Each structure stands twice: as structure tokens, then as C-alpha cells.
Amino acid sequence: MSAKPLYVTEPFLPPLEEVIPMLEQIWNSKFLTNGGPMHQQLERALCEHLGVPYISLFSNGTLALVTALQALRITGEVITTPYSFVATAHSLLWNGIKPVFVDVDPVHLNLDPKKIEAAITPQTTAIMPVHCYGNPCDVDEIQRIADRYNLKVIYDAAHAFGIQCHCGSVLNHGDMSILSFHATKVFNTFEGGAIVCQDAKTKQRIDHLKNFGFVDEVTVVAPGINGKMSELNAAIGLLQLKHVDEIHRLRGAVDARYREALRDVPGIECLTPGNATRHNHSYFPILVKPEYGRTRDGLYHYLKEFGINARRYFYPLISSFPMYRALPSSNPSNLPVAHRAAEQVLCLPIFPNLTESDQQRVIDAIRSGRG
Question: Keyword Cell inner membrane, does the record have it (predicted)?
């Protein structure tokens, strides 16, 4: 019998005996959406767990990104990274904003602060960095640049649930941080997302924008959208939150086993962990160097022969897609580190229920795959 296929992630599902009573509560209340009890409870619980002052739940992270830009009234140009999921840049286009791509640093693959100032023009209004793989950006230097040029900072923190940096939650940096609660994330609501902000007035504007712009039954103050999270999704989030510390622990154990087992494989380099004081181990990226004897794509296809579906996060670069590649900032000569990373990074399976024997399958395949 062939081994079961492995994927980069496998969503954590709360025990069914915990799910059924929550569903019964929703059924009995007949409150399915529009900021019901589960929604309100999850917002409060997440603020406490994450150490943030205000959070607004969304039906997905992309709508949260789009709405954050609207809430801050961002226009013109926004400096961002080409090394991310396409939703980062798509949210700019949805708002009629021009993305300006800047290269990433070679260690953590986050937006390189040393490259930001050269990309600032009179049309620049904001910076949108990504905490790639949950490794914190250089938040202090990015903020210094933003303050110097009077720019807003919106963090795409899709990978950064629960991450702590030198001064507490990394989500408290910048003007806003945007989370994704997609099924592939460390903490998920099946589909969902959120905006973290720092004051009640901003949260109120966000909440108006995610509900068509309604203030009350007869008053609309903005051209909002329908971005509300349902009660079912919020209930799943409340159940997930009960287990999230154990999820972090189990993912950390998988991370540690990979690092120990792969440290002596020529041409395989585990990406250096960031300077977080608390990690969430959201991904496990390796760099496939020439010394391995097989290209990254060669290893990617080789692993598939063993039912191991690794992912090339992020390939191609956002700047290489048709809607972006004509931008001057998309020129490959402007983004050498990002292009090299896109050719070398391979993310391996990491999730709480990954057994040691299945993880050993991955390790053995990598060892046997050397050219």
C-alpha cells in the first residue's frame, strides 16, 4: 500500500465533541452573522490572547487587506515586497494604488529597510511589509523611515499569528496589521481574517467599511463591502483558540526535528529563524543550493514521487505576473535577492499532526535525492 500523500500543511480540526455544542448554540440563537455573540466573543478573546487593543474580524484576509487600505485612505504608491502571496499586491490594485516593489533581505526574506528610501517618491503614501514565514520585519527601522517621510505602515501579518518580538506582539507595530485565518494557517477559522488597529475610532471606521458602510439601519457613511465573519467561522475560531498553545508546541517540535536532521545535508540550508521571542513555526522553508546536486525544482518533483507535496513559496514572484511585470520596480535587476529566493526556497510539510514517521519520510527523501 502506498504511503498517504503529505502536504505543506494540514488544518487542525477541533474535536467533534467540542464542535457540536457550539453549533447547537448557533442553531438555537438563529444568529448566523452580522456581529453575533460568537463574533463578539472571538474578538475579545483574540485581543486578550494576542495582546492587541482592537481587532476586527473579516470573512477572509484579502478583504481585510483591501479594507485596511481604505480605512487609512491610502492612495498613490505603496512600497511593498515581491516575495509574498499575490493577495498582498492585489489589495493595492483593488484600491487603484500602484505597487512599488523593493528587494528583500537575504537572511529572513523580509522587505529590506536599506532599499526602501531609494524607492520613495512624492506619490508614496505607505509601506506594506510582510512578516514572511512569521519572521518579524525590522519594525523599528521601517517605522523610523515611515516617520521621516510621513508614511503609513500596514503590515501583512498573514503568517504572524501569536508572534512576539522585543516589545510584545509584533501585531502592534505600524498603523495596522492584517491577519489571515485561512485553513492553511496556524490559527484558522476555515476561512477568515482580521485587522488589528490601535484606537477605537479606527476600529469603528473599519467595522463600518466591512458592513457596506452602515452606521445604523438608515445611515450609510462609506462605500463599504460585505466582509463580515459568520457565526460559524467565529465558533471554529473560539474552539481553535483553546488548542493554539499546543499547536505551537507541536509545530515547534517538527521544526526542531527538521533542523537537526538536515543540518549536515550538503546544499540544504534551513532558513534562519527570525528574532522573535516567540515563534509560531507557520512554515518550514529550506534553501536548495547548487551543492545539493539537484535544483529546487528537481527536488520539488522528486519529492512528489514519494507523495510529498512540498510548495515553492513564493514562486513566481508577484512582480513576474502579467499584471505587475511591466512596472519599472518589477525589473529583475531591481530584485536580485527575491529572484534568487524564488528559485531556491522549498517549504516542507509542517503541521501539528505530522507524525515522526511521516516526517522521516520527508527527511529520507531529501537525503536520497542528492544528485
Answer: no
